Structure formats: structure tokens, C-alpha cells
């Protein structure tokens, strides 16, 4: 039954995305605001499909911690789920993403029109400079910037791999950073088609004020996000002990992926 529900969801999820991109194409003429309105429609439809078909509810916590105006939203990244679920409480955002996503037919056009920040990760220091330069006018306009501190999806329970992009972004701008913890990867794995029932939690932690040194900022960001993620993972595993196996796989992912 889990497989059947997951297949049904996946078909409807990608069908909904495709139909909205085609039918909603006129919003491209409106610009960024039009794209955001369509993106939030997609988010709402996707969350409804998850709960209705898969029995997976998305729960938001710590909404009182979201500051108004310009903020760097540094979110743990475990699955595709948070890429749309996080849009609910970000009215005017830019996401730092890999440039290759803008090459996807039609989808990439939406990213370009909505003025997302696409970078070439292979460029190292130049990529950091690109992030800093592109972020300044976004934050100056009172918008939000999303960044995944580890750069890519990591399974729940995996050892953290925070990169310098978020530190460079924080250090170059006088705005708070909002850490976001979650346990979405327990229900929507980064590789695999199963969508497990349960409660996927997205928790906004207290914002980190501007002005910390880079080392102090990185240590605080990582410790707060990882501690909260561990708590959310444990909470989910207490409800459903079968999720412990996924945490064990995540904890050993780097060792298992290493060449023999």
C-alpha cells in the first residue's frame, strides 16, 4: 500500500507541476510576483497531495522567530519537500541554487524571471564572491535569501558538512540569519520514490543577530541546527521506530559511499 500511494503521489505531483508551469506561463509577463504566486499555488497543492494521498502532514514550528524584512534563511536540506514547503512563510525571496537548474526547459525560465541567484559551484572562491555580490541588492530591498549551508541534500542522521557560502553571505551583510531545522528526509528520502506517512516538521529557530565573527557564527549555526534536527529525528522515531533504520543509514552514508 505504501508503494501504491507513493506512486500515485509522484505521478500527481509532477503532473501538477507540469500543468501549472504550462497553464501559468502568462505570469512570466507579470514578473517575480507573478511567479511567486504560482509557486505558492504549487506548494499548497503539493502539501495537500502529500497529506491526502500519503498521510504525510507538514507541520511548521517557531513561526514567531521569523523576523520581518531582510533575512538570510539557512535551512537544513534533506529532501525535495522543503524546497517548496519553505515558500509558505517567505513572501519575497531569492534562493541560492546551482546554475544547472536554470538550464531545465521551462522550469529554468521561471527561476530566471523570479530573479533567483544561480551560481557555478565549481568556481570556488569566485562562487563565494558571486553570492556576496548578488545577495546585496536582494537584502537591501528587504527580501529574504534562502541558502542550504551544506550545499546539497544530506540524509537525516548524516554527519554535517557545512560550507563557507553561508558564512560569506552572513559576514558580508548586516542582517540576521534564521536557522531552520527539519526532519523531512525521514519521510521523503533524497533517493527513492517512497513517501512515508507521519509528520514532517519544519522548525524556525531563534535568529542569529548580525555582527558575529565568522568562526563564531558558523559554530553557532551548525550546533543549533544539528541539535534541533537530532531532536526532531528522535521525536519522529519515537512515534515510528521503523524510522531508526533510516537514521542508521544516514549516519553511515559517508562510509558506505566511500570507495573500497
Automatic annotation (TrEMBL):
Q: In which pathway does it act?
A: Lipid metabolism
What is the name of the protein in this document?
1-acyl-sn-glycerol-3-phosphate acyltransferase
Where is the Phospholipid/glycerol acyltransferase domain positioned along the sequence?
A: 71-185
Is Iron one of the keywords? no
What phylogenetic lineage does the species belong to?
Bacteria, Pseudomonadati, Pseudomonadota, Alphaproteobacteria, Hyphomicrobiales
Keyword Transmembrane helix, does the record have it?
Answer: yes
Q: Which residues cross the membrane?
A: 6-30
Which superkingdom?
Bacteria
Q: Which GO terms describe its molecular function?
A: 1-acylglycerol-3-phosphate O-acyltransferase activity
- GO BP field: phosphatidic acid biosynthetic process
Amino acid at each position: 500500500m505504501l508503494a501504491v500511494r507513493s506512486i500515485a503521489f509522484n505521478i500527481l505531483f509532477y503532473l501538477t507541476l507540469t500543468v501549472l508551469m504550462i497553464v501559468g506561463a502568462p505570469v512570466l509577463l507579470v514578473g517575480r510576483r507573478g511567479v511567486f504566486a504560482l509557486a505558492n499555488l504549487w506548494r499548497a497543492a503539493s502539501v495537500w497531495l502529500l497529506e491526502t494521498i500519503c498521510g504525510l502532514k507538514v507541520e511548521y514550528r517557531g513561526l514567531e522567530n521569523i523576523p520581518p524584512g531582510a533575512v538570510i534563511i539557512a535551512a537544513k536540506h534533506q529532501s525535495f519537500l522543503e524546497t517548496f514547503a519553505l515558500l509558505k512563510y517567505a513572501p519575497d525571496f531569492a534562493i541560492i541554487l546551482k546554475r544547472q537548474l536554470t538550464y531545465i526547459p521551462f522550469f529554468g525560465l521561471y527561476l530566471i524571471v523570479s530573479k533567483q541567484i544561480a551560481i557555478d559551484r565549481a568556481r570556488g572562491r569566485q562562487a563565494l564572491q558571486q553570492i556576496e555580490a548578488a545577495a546585496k541588492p536582494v537584502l537591501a530591498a528587504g527580501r529574504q535569501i534562502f541558502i542550504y549551508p551544506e550545499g546539497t541534500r544530506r540524509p537525516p542522521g548524516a554527519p554535517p558538512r557545512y560550507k563557507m557560502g553561508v558564512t560569506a553571505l552572513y559576514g558580508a551583510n548586516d542582517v540576521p540569519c534564521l536557522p531552520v531545522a527539519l526532519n523531512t528526509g525521514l519521510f521523503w528520502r533524497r533517493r527513492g520514490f517512497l513517501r512515508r506517512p507521519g509528520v514532517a516538521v519544519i522548525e524556525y529557530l531563534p535568529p542569529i543577530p548580525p555582527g558575529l565573527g565568522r568562526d563564531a557564527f558558523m559554530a553557532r549555526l551548525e550546533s543549533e541546527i544539528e541539535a534541533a534536527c537530532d531532536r526532531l529525528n528522535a521525536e519522529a522515531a519515537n512515534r515510528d521506530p521503523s524510522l531508526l533504520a533510516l537514521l542508521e543509514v544516514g549516519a553511515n552514508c559517508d562510509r558506505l559511499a566511500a570507495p573500497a
